[in-house]
Design a protein that fits this description.
478 residues; alpha/beta; Aspartate Aminotransferase, domain 1; Aspartate Aminotransferase, domain 2; 7-stranded mixed sheet; 4-stranded mixed sheet; 18 helices; 42% helix; globular; binds glutamine
Length: 478
């Protein structure tokens, strides 16, 4: 019998041969992407290549179809559109204010120590593992073993990718259930790991033309269970939820947990906003009876400390789940950057005693209330978020002229993208079209919502309030 390595080698070889043959034709994708006209002086990519370069160009392999498209991710697309007109950026969920001084200093001090500038162990720096264990042991209702139950990652995103990579197998059609709207990285990360996302949308049980609660967005548990197949491996649960702001109740978590037990599934709990809830308690599903053994809980220093650019996150779970996750992480990035792990560890240590976490939570609650007031003033209803830092605004009352000119890249992505773009161009405020958080057949469920982030400065929110005054003249009732 051929070994797995030999089979892998043969398939790589045969793929390489195919590339070689196909490269004799100009790649179709390249032809489709070719510019319609070239500016004077620019190389004309559609013109035949000079004879001397043909042979080398023919050897270029095509990119994987998975990455070959020109489609930008929603964050880059909306950031670019906002920057073009200098719009107030309430789109991507990054903080527009600087991290607190003690947090910046923690990173600076780490950089100044030679030992903190070399590779970290793949699992993570002991100082950070210790802080994660200290914070999450009480939240998960058990004493975490930092030597086996935690791994540090290059952001929560890479923690998620590592879990998918560890538990999905290429060629076996493994399925992962996502609850929509679902953060846009989940589905591609699942596909990269060889799996297939299966979508179950949250259902809105209230009239969306009024201000409603994020708790009005519910998972139909029968629908969730019906989505499970013999190929299902994982249910992804995001609480507090991006972009709805829903904080799943203990009862909802127990029902999801019961489904995972009945079908022997893993739960991947994306809890990166665990520290930001408003008048509700965040409950970790891993703290519920019997859930620990089947759950990986993912967290983020970027969100916890307001340093999304540091790319430090973690995964917590039983040894049996963290060991393969760590093995995948080791092959994806090997280790997470050392100085910022140390910076996070030091900042988390200080934050326990300096009151940072509660002060930060109150600040976000204040910003949330401010953004809700802004939309109350202009007359658009929204979903009151109980957690995280996003506001879903229902902009169905905004009149977008039929003949409004949209760039093709926006227009082709449907009405929800057009609406978000209209906000940027006409009102100078950028948000994210939540359609991006739905699979194609469910995109209509994004309706006329636009997501606005409130992890922004008071000046930014004030500027948005002024800019949005123009919106009052675009309401349907006018
Ligand atoms: N989590 C953030 C958001 O939803 C940023 C996501 C990203 O840029 N990939 O806005």
């Amino acid at each position: 019998m051929r070994s797995a390595f030999q089979q892998h080698f043969r398939s790589v070889l045969s793929a390489a041969r195919k590339v070689h043959c196909r490269a004799k034709q100009p790649p179709a994708a390249a032809a489709a992407m070719a510019p319609l006209s070239s500016k004077a002086g620019d190389p004309d990519l559609t013109a035949p290549a000079p004879a001397s370069t043909i042979s080398s160009q023919r050897c270029l392999p095509e990119p994987s179809p998975f990455y070959a498209g020109s489609g930008l991710d929603v964050w880059t697309m909306m950031n670019q559109a906002a920057a073009e007109v200098g719009a107030v950026n309430l789109g991507q969920g990054f903080m527009s204010f600087p991290p607190q001084c003690f947090i910046r200093r923690a990173a600076q001090e780490a950089l100044d120590q030679n030992v903190h500038n070399q590779y970290a162990p793949p699992r993570g720096r002991p100082a950070l593992l210790e802080q994660i264990a200290a914070r999450f042991s009480p939240r998960l209702g058990r004493q975490l073993d930092q030597a086996s139950e935690i791994s540090v990652h290059a952001g929560a995103n890479e923690a998620l990718l590592s879990v998918f990579t560890a538990f999905l197998t290429h060629g076996q059609d493994h399925e992962v259930i996502l609850m929509e709207p679902a953060f846009d990285q989940y589905a591609p990360n699942i596909a990269m790991a060889g799996g297939k996302p299966v979508y179950v949308p949250l259902r809105v049980l209230a009239a969306a033309d009024k201000v409603i609660s994020s708790d009005d967005w519910k998972i139909d548990m029968a629908e969730l269970e019906a989505a499970v197949s013999p190929k299902t491996r994982i249910i992804v649960l995001n609480t507090p939820h991006n972009p709805v702001g829903k904080v799943f109740t203990r009862d909802e978590l127990a029902q999801i947990g019961a489904i995972s037990e009945r079908h022997n599934l893993l739960i991947l709990a994306d809890e990166v906003y665990e520290h930001l809830t408003y008048g509700r308690d965040h409950v970790s599903i891993a703290s519920l009876p019997r859930m620990w053994e089947r759950t990986v809980t993912v967290g983020s220093a970027g969100k916890l400390l307001g340093v999304t650019g540091w790319r430090v996150g973690w995964a917590i779970g039983p040894r049996a789940l963290i060991q393969p996750t760590l093995a995948a992480h080791t092959r994806i990035v090997f280790t997470t950057n050392t100085p910022l792990q140390e910076g996070v560890a030091s900042a988390m240590r200080q934050a326990v005693s300096n009151g940072f976490y509660e002060a930060q939570r109150q600040e976000y609650e204040r910003r949330r209330n401010r953004l809700m007031e802004i939309f109350d003033d202009v007359g658009l209803p929204y979903v009151v978020p109980d957690g995280a830092y996003y506001l879903l605004v229902n902009a169905s009352a905004v009149r977008v002229p039929q003949d409004y000119l949209f760039p093709e890249a926006i227009s082709s992505r449907g009405p929800n993208f057009r609406l978000a773009y209209f906000f940027i161009r006409e009102f100078g405020v950028s948000g994210i079209p939540p359609a991006e958080f739905y699979c194609e057949p469910h995109r209509y469920l994004a309706g006329d919502y636009v997501r606005f982030a409130f992890c922004k400065t008071d000046e930014g929110l004030d500027a948005a309030a002024v800019a949005l005054q123009k919106l009052k003249h675009h309401l349907q009732s006018e």
